[in-house]
Fold each of these.
Amino acid sequence: MDKKSILLLIFTIASFVFMVIFFKKGEGVADSLIQKELYSSLGGLFLGLFAVFLLAFISLLARKRVWKVLAIIALIIFSFATLQEMRYVLLLSDDKKLYEQGEFETFVGTPDEVKYDHKNEYLFELHFGDQSFNVHHLKISRSFYKEELEGKQLEIQYLPNSKLPVSLEHGDGFGVSFGTEAFGTEGRVPCSKAGTGGCSRV
């Protein structure tokens, strides 16, 4: 192998090591949503870099033209995905201080569509017209959503830059937040008192 190939191989291995480290760190965080999401997103970023460096390495070593072309196409796709993940990490970094200070924005509306994870056990996304929120980290079970939240106007508190939901509730007194299965509305900030974060309704 030439020097370029050896360098790419080193970057590939290093990216894999950092990917494992950050994913493990993310799994170990139980009391801070922003820290857990940052570690997990950094793990995703290094996963993308691992794929990019590996595909670049393969494209250099491939002898057949078709494999080189396929590797380059995949490289372009993973590069775009990695850039998106890098952008999300930067947005989360901007949100870290706001999270610690409890400065959230609030969105109120009734979902037009919901999506569940691949196992069909937990809520994955909520769609409100052209607005959507990824809520998989809140661990809202399908049964809880069906029994307590479906068809109701929901209030979502989220971080302004990354749009990461921190909590979800409705006016009848039930909701979920990171690290809890359910809560009553005592101590929560209603939309009418959302403060500096503002409030949007649909």
Amino acid sequence: MDADEKLAKWAALFVRACSEGDAGAVPSGRAEPAANAQYPGVTQAARELLQAVDAGGVPAFVTASLKQIAGENGVAITDAWTPNEIVAAIRSKAGDGNAGGPKEAPTPGAQ
């Protein structure tokens, strides 16, 4: 499926959601999270972060708060990590099965 087809599919879902009177619903193309998603093994702040991400609120950039939440939950990050990688690592600590962190560490001096 090319990019135009993906956009058309998303737009159709969006228009249908809006026409059904649920203007706050923006389809993401992924399964809806469980209404009472539990995240054992992480702090309350981490649970709130994961619930916000599940609702479609992925952080745009790494903030001091995101770094603090990661640290409080035993996730040692570097400046190279993206918000999505940090969230995935926290999610992994919460035990929901998605491994986190960068896919591969950059090799110094590699081109």
